[in-house]
Amino acid sequence: MSFQSLGLHDRILQATDDAGYSQPTPIQAKTIPAILSGRDLIGLAQTGTGKTAAFTLPLLSQLVSSNHDLTERAARVLIIAPTRELVQQINQSIRTYGKFTNLRTAIVMGGASEKHQIEKLQSNVDIVIATPGRLMALMKDGHCNFGKLTHLVLDEADRMLDMGFLPDIQAITESLPKRRQSLLFSATFPQQVERLAKTILKDPHTIEVGARSNPAETVDQYLYPVEPHLKTPLLIELLEDHQFFSVIAFVRTREDADLLTKDLRGAGIDTEAIHSDRSQNHRARALRDFKASKLRVLVATDIAARGLDIPNVTHVVNYDFPGQSDDYIHRIGRTGRAGAEGCAITFLTENDGERLKKLERHIGKTLAKRFLDGFNYKVPAPEEEKERRFVKRQPKRHSSDRFENSPRGKARKTAKKTTQKRTDWRKPKKRK
d(Cα 115, Cα 344) in Å, to the nearest integer? Predict the structure, then answer.
């Protein structure tokens, strides 16, 4: 099957050919004709399947084919996504596939100039791509005119609800014209997403590609049991293997991301962190450098990495065990994209047993355990670490979203002391 057989406009086909794409992915082959037919749609697919192009291509084709009077421009497409990175990725997709059209886009998201975004909205654009929070704020202030809107897209709907955006999404959709085509894309389909779909979609066509909530078959998955104080030394040892060429390491908190980045840099490994405390310019630069292979390791929290489309990631390392099973799916979905091979490594501590049981039930398989040859697993924890673990236990955490926003207080001070003693992990302490 080719893109030419899907009914796309000639200008869009010219752009796909110019970008070097000739054959659609399975989600694109099924979704594009359905969207072009005008029906509402639910698209369920894992990350890395070509989902973004699955809706941007037909939407662009519809706009070009509509012969709309460009002298009376107004926003006709609204695309809502959970993170700034995903908004930028969608915008780049539209620029790539809409390069032979005169369509205009506007980005609405936090971390960027609100004044500039308002000016852009008032310049009569065709497509608005937005995060829910900033969009809701601008709509309340009367800066958005969606009176002529014809298409709505909710991308990564499951994650938007996980992040607490349901009230904003409900308020936004209720203010839009009732006569429109609505599309909802999600990697998972829990009851909350299903209820949302019923309120905003009319007789939707459901398309599901691949096993829902399961990792790609091309990703090898392994557990590495390790004591908490040895996770960083173990990661550094693993990175001595040059097959670990492009690595994303996931941690629970922003503080952990900064600390691990500092430790890896201290070991001579080109590393950068992305999380919600970093500026948009900083995050964008880090992503550019990582894609250009100027960085070997990208340390990220779950929220910051959501929706990233980075080709050729060789390894994902779950430095901290994911808080939810779905987070595991989304994390390791950063590698093995579009059928490529990848490897996912999860560090397993003695406190992760219950989460591991839930995860293995969720994905329907038992993960194999591995140990790194030559690594000294018997280095004892520093006294400060022992006191933290056995005298003052940390409260149990349940959600990766809470992880990113949780303060670490004294525990972080302890961790800083610990990292200064990580340089001698290969040598066991001498007994007196």
Answer: 42
Residues 262-296: pLDDT tens digits?
999 999 999 999 987 887 788 889 989 999 999 99
Whether 186 and 141 map to the same domain: the answer is: yes
Residue at 178: amino acid letter? K
**Where does a domain end: 144, 179, 209?**
209
| Residue labelled with tokens 């990703």 | 219
Q: How far is residue 188's CA from residue 263's CA, in Å, rounded to a whole number?
A: 35
Cα–chain-centroid distance for residue 344?
16
With residue 264 as reference, give the H or E element that holds it: helix 254-266
259 phi and psi angles, rounded to 5 deg:
-65, -45
Provide the domain limits for residue 248.
219-424
**Which CATH number characterizes residue 228's domain?**
3.40.50.300
- Where do the DSSP E strands lie in 49-138? 77-80, 105-108, 127-130
Question: Are both 161 and 281 inside the same structural domain?
Answer: no
My answer on whether 181 and 249 are in the same domain is no
The CA distance from 345 to 332, in Å, is 9
Task: Please state whether the predicted TM-score (pTM) of the whole model is above 0.85.
Answer: no
